[in-house]
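#struct-pred
JK: can someone run the complex with adenosine-5'-diphosphate? inputs below
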Amino acid sequence: MSRIAEIALPCPLRQTFDYLINPSSLEIKIGSRVKVPFGSREIIGFVVSITEEKDPADLERLKKVIYCLDPAPIISKALFELIHWTSHYYHHPIGDCYQVALPKKIRSGEPNTLKTVNAWSLVKQKKTALRFGKKQQEIIHFLDQSDQAISQKDLYEQLGSCRSTLLNLLEKGVIEQHEDIKKPAIETNLIPLKILNSEQSHTVKDIWNNKSSFNVSLIQGITGSGKTEVYIQLTAEMLAENRQVLILIPEIGLTEQFVARFKQHLSAKIVVINSSMNETDRHQAWLLAQSGHADIVIGTRSAVFTPLDNLGLIIIDEEHDSSYKQQDSLRYHARNVALMRAKQADIPIVLGSATPSLESFYRAQSQQYRLLTLTQRATGAVLPEVMLVDSRGPKAVNGLSTVLYKAIEAELAKDNQVLLFINKRGYAPVLMCHDCQWQASCPDCDAKMIIHQGRYQLRCHHCGFNQALIKNCPECESADLGHYGVGTEQIEQSLQTLFPAVPVLRIDRDTTQKVGAFAKLVSEIQQGGAKILVGTQMLAKGHDFHDVTLVGVLDADQGLFSADFRATEVLAQLIIQVTGRAGRGEKSGRVYIQSSQTEHPFWQQLLHHGYSEIAAALLAERKGSLMPPVGSLCVIRARGKAQVLSLDFLTEVAGLLNQGHQNAVLVLGPVPAMMEKRAGYFRAQLLLTTQNRKILHQLLDHHMPAISSLKSSRKVKWSIDIDPIDLM
Ligand code: ADP
Ligand code: ZN
Ligand code: ZN
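RT: done, C-alpha cells with the ligand placed:
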C-alpha cells in the first residue's frame, strides 16, 4: 500500500503539500523532517499527517519524498499539536508557523545532535603502585576531587595546557576520556530559599494545591511584593518532583538578573532561550530542553514553543506586557499560546503582574482564573509617593521642569540614584524651518524624521531610513532650522550640562544594540557607577535597582490622547511599573510625573486609587463598548504600492465576509491605517468585531480559500491579526 505524507513547507501559501513516501522509509512519521522537491529546489518540510493510498490517479501525479532527516520525529506530539493549534487560531499558514516556532538550525536540516566537549576522569580502581611525575600527580589530584568527568577546558584553565601528559596517563590506563554533552552549569554555593511572608506562602500553597491539572492562577502583586520569590519557590517544588518549568519574561535585558536569582537558590540546569542568541546557541539550548537536560527554561516570547516533554508548570512574568504579542508574520500572543500549552499538557500556569492585563483581570473576575494578591513590598519598603508636576510651569531646561530639577539636585546631594523616563529616543522628534515651516519627514512613511545628534543624522523610527543632518532648509535654504520636542539624547546632554560632575547613563535602543550592552549598563547601575539614568520604557520593566530614590516621567501625556482603545490601560500599566522602580531598597522613594494635563481625570484616578480600581473602571468602559476582553476583534490588514490596491482587496474581502448576511460578526471598513504610508507601502485595514469568537473563527475558516485566491490579493501583502493589541 502506498503512503502519502502531507507536508508543511516553508512558503507563504495557505496549504500543505502531498508527497509519496518510499515504501522502505518506515521512519517517516508525523513530526518528521523530510527533504522534498519543490519547484526547481529541494527543501525541508515537516510531516503533518500520513494517509494510506488515495485515488491511483493521484499517485501518478505526486512527487516523492527524497529522504527523512531523522530516525525519529523531531517534534513531539505535544509540540506538534501546539503549533497546529496556533496556526488554526491565528489563521496563519502552517508552514510559516513552523518557521516561527522552531530554531533556524532545525528548519535548515542541521543534525539533531547536541554538541559534546572533551572531558576526563580517573579510572578509580587503577590507583596502583605506578609512579607519577609532578604534572601527572597534579592532574590525578585534580580529577580525584570530582565524581564527574572534568572538561578539558576546565582542566587547562586550572593546570595549564597539558595534552601530552593527559595522553600519557590515558595510555597507562589511569584516566579515561569522555565526550560529554555541554550541560548548563549548576551553582554549587546555594543560598537557602527566603522565608516567605504570609501572603507569599499562601500564594505558593494555593498554587501548589492545584498542581496536578490545568488551572490558571493570576498573581496580582505590587512591584517589589516578592512575585519572583514566589516563582522561585514554586519552581523548587516542581523540580523536586522531577518536572520541568518554563518561565517567560518580557524583555531580553531582564534575563541575566532573572537567571541569577534562580541559580543562586536552586540546584538546577537552567537554559536560556531568546532572540539575541546566535543560531548555534539557540539550537543547542533547544536540544538541551528537548533531551531533558534542562530543568528550567527562561526565555522571551518565542520560548513558549520550547520542546519540554516533562513540563510541569508554566510561569509568565509581567503577563500584561505587550512584548508577548508578535507584531509581524505569525501574530501570536505568547500568553495565549502558553495557556493553550498548559491546557494541552494538563498542567498549572501562573500569570504574574503588578498591573494585570484587562484580559486576565476580566477572567479573574469571572472566576476562570484564581486571583492571588500580594499587597505589601516584601522587604518592608513602602511604595513611593507620587506627585504630578505641571510641565507648563518654569523649566530648568527643555523637557525638564524646575520642580523636577530641584528634586534631582536634592537626591544627588544625598548620593542617591535618579531615574528619568522619556519615551522618545534620539535628540528631538521634529526638525523645522522657522522661515517656511518645512518639517523633516520620511520620504517613505507618514512620519517625521527624528534628530539623532550623536550620529549627526535624521532617522525614521518606522522604516529605518536615515540621512545626514542638514544645516539648511531644503525648501527655502534658510539656515534658521529649529528642533522641537525632546528625546533621550537631549535630556542626557542637558543633564550633563546641569550636573557636570555627575555620571549620566542613557539606556535606549540606540545604546543597547550590541549583544551584552544592556547587561553591562544594568550592572553599572547596580554598582552605583551611574547616578542619573535616562531611558525609554525598556528600563521600566522588572529591574531591581536598590539605590534609586527618585523617578521622573518626562512625557507622560502621550497616552492620554491616543486614539487607540488600549492607550489608557497601557499608560496606567507603564506609570505603575515605572513608579515601582523607586524606593525598592532601604531608602524610600518619590515619583514625579510631568504632565501638561494635571487636571485630567486619569491622573486623579491614578494618584488616588490603586490599579484594581483603574482596571475595573476601564473594564466597565470596555463592557459598554463591547471591546476586548468582552468582545473579540480581528484586523485584516493590507498594504500595496498604491492605496487603491489595498482598499480594493479589502473591499472584496468585506464583500465575501458579509455574503450570507451574517450578523454575528460586524465588518467595519476598509479604512486607511492611522499611519497610511509606511516604508513605501500604503496601508489599509478591515476591522471585525464580535461577541462570538467561535463564529468569527468559523467565518474566517470558511472564507479563507476564497480570500486567498482573490485576484486582488496578489497585488498586496495582507495579514490577519487575531486579538490585535492595537488598531493603528
Ligand atoms: P517582584 O518580583 O514582585 O517585583 P521580588 O521577588 O523581586 O518582587 O522581591 C522584591 C525584593 O524583595 C527583592 O529584593 C527580594 O529579594 C525581596 N524579597 C522577596 N521576598 C522576600 C521575603 N520573603 N523575605 C525577604 N525579602 C524578600
Ligand atoms: Zn524653509
Ligand atoms: Zn520611514
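RT: quick notes.
DSSP finds 21 helices and 32 strands in the chain.
The two ends are 54 Å apart (CA to CA).
JK: thanks, will look after standup
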